[in-house]
Specification:
heterodimer; A: about 200 residues; mainly alpha; two-stranded antiparallel sheet; B: about 210 residues; alpha/beta; Oxidized Rhodanese, domain 1; 2 domains; five-stranded parallel β-sheet; 7 strands; elongated
Chain lengths: ~200, ~210
């Protein structure tokens, strides 16, 4: 049996929805357990006092990347059928900056605000109201910004194709970056903790 | 370096990731992966006649401006230049393997009659393009039924009603319905529409997968 299952149409649509639901619940649960339901913990990332966000996200990237790479190497996953988000360079950079600003100001990203809401945090509820309002404004304003939103379209770009190297090399480089990043993050955390400790 | 027994779980996982990363240098997960070709399954598809798309169906897609399919014209480029079905891309059989297609795209192939299209269909299936289809009857049937639909004299009411729909579709593609005595005219004597007279149907670009992703 080959993956992605959905593209091969192995099961009925309902089963995929049930699977998505189960995966979503698990995702939310582990985000919560990693402490991502707390705006304090999340924003500490931006002051480099707690690098948990960086570590968790990069671990997830590395785990998923290695999984997809090896499964496709062994012929279980057909990478051609895996969706790659098309690149729109300038709109996506703008969107990324906006999301980052919102993240720092509000203390959550969209997913973690839902996680925080599940433990009854009121700030998450306010944040969510902001998201809904933002979606509404975006939807209404879309005709005006449509030209911008679809500008600088590069199609589906993957790192190894753009750099002209093998996929394995990119996988290795990302793993190396992650491991060095984890090490660097723990060094920064320790330094800042010492400094904070010394100041008291 | 600390003794391995004193490593935390994070250290061990990092080491595992590194080892897997190093092995990844040797691996390939490229597009040219081998595909299991089940010839019996192919035979079943052919026999079940689920491997084709009707000309009327395709005409409807084009009229509706749908962009969730790729239409491939596998005839020679001169023939393509003379006339092709709107939204079609010209691909020769020898170019087919390296032509930029995605395995999850709905691919419709046509040639004059259908033999070349059928052969192209097998080539694509062999490379794992599971949702490729043949335009049944090829360009000849396209001309007969879409461009120059004919209404025989003395046709009954339901045939006339169906013909009215075909008439508008035919007009959309710059064709010419044949009625009465004209219905007997061989389609080969009717000139194919000039490509310029064909409505400007946007060729689907690579933006079909917008509905996916998060």
């Amino acid at each position: 049996m080959n993956a992605p299952f959905y593209k091969y149409g192995y099961f009925g649509d309902e089963l995929y929805l049930i699977a998505a639901f189960a995966i979503g619940i698990a995702f939310g649960f582990f985000l919560e357990r990693a402490g991502f339901g707390s705006a304090k913990k999340l924003t500490a990332q931006f002051y480099f006092t707690d690098m948990a966000v960086f570590k968790v996200m990069f671990s997830a990237i590395v785990t998923a990347m290695l999984g997809v790479f090896y499964l496709s190497w062994f012929g279980v996953v057909d990478l051609d059928l895996v969706f790659v988000n098309p690149t729109y360079l300038v709109p996506q950079m703008t969107g990324g900056l906006l999301l980052g600003m919102g993240f720092i100001i509000g203390g959550y990203c969209p997913g973690t605000s839902l996680v925080a809401l599940s433990t009854g945090k009121v700030d998450a509820l306010v944040f969510l109201a902001g998201i809904v309002a933002g979606i509404f404004v975006f939807g209404e304003a879309y005709p005006a910004i449509e030209g911008f939103a679809s500008s600088t379209a590069l199609g589906t770009v993957t790192l190894h194709e753009a750099l002209g190297v093998s996929m394995g090399l990119v996988v290795f480089a990302v793993v190396l970056m992650a491991v060095l990043g984890f090490w660097g993050a723990s060094v920064v955390e320790r330094r800042l903790a010492e400094k904070a400790g010394g100041a008291v | 370096m600390k003794a391995y027994s004193r490593w935390t779980i994070s250290h061990k996982l990092a080491l595992l990731a590194l080892v897997l990363g190093v092995f990844a240098l040797l691996g390939t997960a490229e597009k040219s992966g081998t595909v299991q070709l089940d010839t019996q399954e192919l035979a079943r598809i052919v026999e079940g006649e689920v491997d084709h798309v009707d000309v009327e169906e395709l005409a409807d897609w084009i009229v509706q401006g749908r962009s969730d399919y790729r239409l491939l014209d596998v005839r020679a480029s001169e023939e393509y230049a003379r006339y092709h079905i709107p939204t079609a891309e010209n691909v020769r059989l020898v170019e087919l393997r390296d032509y930029p297609l995605y395995r999850n795209e709905k691919i419709v192939i046509y040639s004059d009659g259908g033999i070349h299209a059928a052969q192209a269909w097998f080539l694509l299936q062999a490379h794992g393009y599971v949702s490729s289809y043949i335009l049944l009857g090829g360009l000849e049937l396209w001309k007969d039924e879409v461009l120059f639909p004919a209404l025989a004299e003395g046709a009954d009411a339901s045939a006339r009603a169906a013909f009215e729909k075909r008439r508008s579709v035919s007009a959309f593609f710059g064709g010419q319905p044949r009625t009465g005595a004209a219905a007997e005219v061989e389609r080969y004597t009717v000139p194919v529409p000039k490509l310029e007279s064909v409505p400007n149907v946007a060729v689907p670009k690579r933006s079909r997968k917008q509905k996916e992703g998060c």
